[in-house]
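Ticket reopened. Same input as before:
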Amino acid sequence: MIVTVKLFASFRTGRFDIETVDYPAGTTVADVADRLRLPHSELGIMMINSRHVKLDRELAEGDTLALFPLLGGG
Amino acid sequence: MDTLPIYVRDHAEGQLLPWNNQLEAAERFGVSLAQVEDVALERGILPARYQRNRKTLSISDQLSLFRSRVAVIGCGGLGGYVVEELARMGVGNIVVIDPDVFEEHNLNRQLFSSPANLGTAKVEAASRRIREINPAVTLVPVQAAFSAMNGEELLAGCQLAVDALDTISTRLELAEVCASLRIPLVHGAIAGWFGHVTTQFPGDDTLQTIYGTWKTGKGVEQTLGNPSFTPAVIASLEVAEVCKLLTGQGTPLRGRQLMIDLFSMEMDILNVPEGRRETK
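Engineering reply: fixed in the latest deploy. New output:
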C-alpha cells in the first residue's frame, strides 16, 4: 500500500518533508507515528487527504497523511 | 457658549485633531481624552495620531474600533504584542486577563517585560504601557486566571476575545465560553519557529477540532521554547483578524487555519469544518 507522508514544522528535523512509503495494509496513523518515532503526546493536527483524522484511522492506498506537531505556547 | 464639539471642530486642522488640542480639550471641558476622541470621531474628525490608519480604516471604522471592547486572554508573548497593536490601532476598550508576574525567562520576547519589571504583574505593566502610548484607550487589567468559572463574567460586554494563552486546556475553556456568549474567538498558538492562527465564529467548533487529539500537557513549545519573533508574527496576524471582525471588512480565517513555519518560510491553509461537531 503506497501512501504519501508529509511532515510539518519541527517533525521535519532529522526526518523529511515528504516521503512516499510502502506500508502493509491495515497500517494506522498511530503506526506511522511510531515508525517515525513521533511521540503521540507531540501530535497535533493529523489529516488524511486534507481531512482531520484520529490516531486509530487506517490508511488506504494512495492516501496522503499530513502530521503537524501540537503547538500550545503563547 | 463654547461646547466640546464646537471646540473640537474649531481646533481640527483639516480633518485631523492634533494631540495637543485633544489634551487641551480634555482639560478645558474636564472630560477624559476618550470622551474627546469619541466626540471628534463622531463628527468625522480623526485624532491626528491615527492619520496613517487612513485608507486602511475609514473614520467610521475608527469610531467602531474606538467603541469596541476586546478581551485579550494572556499577557505574555502573544498578549503583549496584541495589546500594544490594539491600543495603537485605536481599539477603545481592552480587557487584559493574566494571573502572572514577569520572570526573567520572559525577557527574550514579552513586549512589556523589562529587568525593572521583574516581579510586576503582567497586566499592571500592560496598563502602564497603554497609558504611555495611547491614553485615550481604556485598559482593564484583570490579574486572575481565566477559567470556565469566571469566563462569562470577565468577557461580558466584549465583542470578541483574543486567545493569547499558553495552556491548551484553558484555550478549550475559552472557546466554550466564547461559544456560549456567541462572540468570535481569534486563536493563535506558538512553539519555536512555528505557529498557527484561526478564528472561531459563534456556532463553530474550531478549537475542539484543531485540538481534538489533545489529552493532557503542553505542546512542543515545552522543548522548542519561544524566540522573540514568533509571538510578534502570530500576534500581528491575530490583530489583523480583530481589525477585520470589528470593522466588518476583509475575509477572516473562518473555517481555515493558517499554519506558519518561519524556519522553512512556508505558510499553509488547512480547512477546519464549520459548525458544531456531531459527537463530542
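The first strand of chain A starts at residue 2 and ends at 7. The radius of gyration of chain A is 12 Å. Please confirm and we'll close it.
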